[in-house]
Amino acid sequence: MLADALEHLVRGIVDNPDDVRVQLVTTRRGRTLEVHVHPDDLGKVIGRGGRTATALRTVMGGIGGRGVRVDVVDTDR
Amino acid sequence: MAEMLATDVVTEANSRLDGDDEVGAGESIRNVPPSEELLVQEGDAAGDYLERLLDLVDYDGDIDLDVEGGRAMVSIDGGADLAKLVGPRGTVLEALQELTRLAVQQQTGARSRLMLDIAQWRATRRDDLSELGRSIAQRVLDGGEPVRLQSMTPFERKIVHDAVAGVDGVRSESEGEEPQRCVVVSPTT
To answer: Which residues in chain B have Cβ-Cβ distances shorter than 8 Å to A61?
Structure first.
């Protein structure tokens, strides 16, 4: 549910919505939502000064409670 | 009671009522006003984006679209779950407004200044700030000394300025630089 919600939020703000994938990864440190986007959309998802990534984290924190991390994965490697 | 409310609002005054550089008293930075058609289109795009989100997280909410003061207004009202989308001091609401503006821009190609309200949070905040402005004005009238409020967003300051303007014998000005700019209320004499 959290992953679907985040995927939707990200799809809406990128040029390549079909390339958006969100995976929920559970580690000892807790739950992390890993966001994969088209390399060209990385800037859009992070935003100026990280503003958009912060907004995504804040909204997911509101929905999922504390302890849900959001990582934007740099696929351009 | 008014005193308690005032303290409460002052403490929270650093929270941003609106997500970005906004219209304040005499501080309007407006280029070409967007057409009514574009604003309706903005509202529709925002409504779609938010409705799908509500579906996915299974929150009850009705979305209301409006155009007011040259911008699209989107309000969500409904179940208790919506408090999670407002968050402490409206932080989640601000973040969601930011994302919604981006989603709208993605659709329309134009930068959006749409205003999102959830569970009447902004509307209530507006009332609190008006109350604050009036009670501070009264305190200045009684005490004869200027009172400086905590820093606020342009949008918040405008609400306070408007409230103070409704009281005879006091005036208000904004002082300082953003984001530390704040309202100072003084006696007119």
So the answer is: 87, 92
Which residues on B lie below 8 Å from A9 (Cβ)? 53, 99, 103
Ramachandran angles phi, psi of B90, nearest 5°: 75, 15
Give yes or no for a contact between A73 and A42, defined as CB atoms under 8 angstroms apart: no
Q: For residue B12, give the amino acid letter.
A: E
Q: How far apart are CA A60 and CA A44, in angstroms?
A: 18
In angstroms, the CA B151 to CA B46 distance is 30
Q: Do strands A30-36 and A68-73 pair parallel, antiparallel, or not at all (unpaired)?
A: parallel
**Residue B100 · residue B89 · CB < 8 Å:** no
Each residue of A33-53: pLDDT tens digit?
A: 999 999 999 999 999 999 999
Is the CB of residue B94 less than 8 Å from the CB of residue B12? no
Section B80-102 average pLDDT:
94
pLDDT digits (tens, 9 = 90+) for B148-187: 999 887 778 999 999 999 999 999 999 999 878 999 999 9
Report the residue of chain B nearest A41, measured CA to CA: B106
| B84: nearest CB among A12, A44, A63 | A63
Of A5, A14, A54, the CB nearest to B53: A5
pTM exceeding the 0.80 threshold for the entire prediction: no
